[in-house]
Amino acid sequence: MKSVAIILSGCGVYDGSEIHESVLTMLSLSRLGAEVSFFSPDEAQHHVINHLNGEEKRESRDIMEESARITRGNIQPLSKVNIDELDALIIPGGFGVAKNLCNFAFKGSDCEINKELLSIVQNMHQQGKPMGFICIAPVMVPKILDKPIKVTIGNDPETAAQIAKMGGVHVECPVDDIVVDFENKIVTTPAYMLAESLAQAEKGIDKLVRKILEMIE
Predict the structure, then answer these.
(1) What CA–CA distance (Å, rounded) separates 197 from 191?
(2) What function is annotated for this protein (predicted)?
(3) I need a labelling partner for 59 at 20 to 30 A (CA). Which of 31, 74, 126, 166 fits?
(4) Closest of 59, 13, 74, 4 to residue 33, by C-alpha
């Protein structure tokens, strides 16, 4: 059975993982018979957003506790990742990626990546294991791997410019498709960077999951 880690960044599009993207990823992996494990940073999230009105709330929440809402409690801290036991890794989108896994939301191309995540992704890459990045998550790829890797976030020119500034190669891509950097085994899809419905997001995410599993050696 192929073993895939999903890395989450909280619960909710504005301050954590995008719930639809996370669940669609889990669903595709489940249908295809993969063994899935879940991880996230075990620390306070950047801030808490009221998802009804978009306003910041005066409270603190833990990234792993919030992520556990999506995984029904089945989650471990990033420090518990054992790369030798994994065949692949996927990171769904949501602003939590750009606020909790890194600080791209505030620093753009000068962003810093969570140190544990940085080490995990670099080591997975060194071992030639495929990785998928969904929605806004592909912005981290050029910063983490420091290579001109092909990625997509759809067609947003400002975000694409930041990717180029970090040394990545942005490829425009429709919502129902994927961009594959075969040499580096990186697969990306726009999802809710472009999706106007759950069904649209599902097409690209399912393609990404299938391609990741296909690339496992």
Answers:
(1) 9
(2) Displays glyoxalase activity, catalyzing the conversion of glyoxal to glycolate.
(3) 74
(4) 4
Residues annotated as catalytic are 135
Transcribe 47-116 into DSSP letters: -EE-TTT--EES---BHHHHHHHHTTT--EEGGG--GGG-SEEEE--SHHIIIIIB-HHHHGGG--B-HH
For the whole model, what pTM was predicted? 0.97
Given its phi and psi angles, is residue 165 left (phi above 0), alpha (psi -120 to 50 degrees) or beta? alpha
DSSP assigned state of 191: G
The per-residue pLDDT for range 8-25, each reduced to its tens digit, is: 999 999 999 999 999 999
Distance (Å, whole) CA 72 – CA 58:
26
Pairing of strands 3-7, 35-40: parallel
> What is the spatial distance between Cα 72 and Cα 90, in angstroms, rounded to a whole number?
18
* pLDDT, tens digit, 9 for 90 and up, residues 193-214: 999 999 999 999 999 999 999 9
The one-letter code for the residue type at 162 is Q
Residue 105 half-sphere exposure toward CB, CA atoms < 13 A: 17
- Which residue in the block uniquely carries the two structure tokens 């489940």? 30
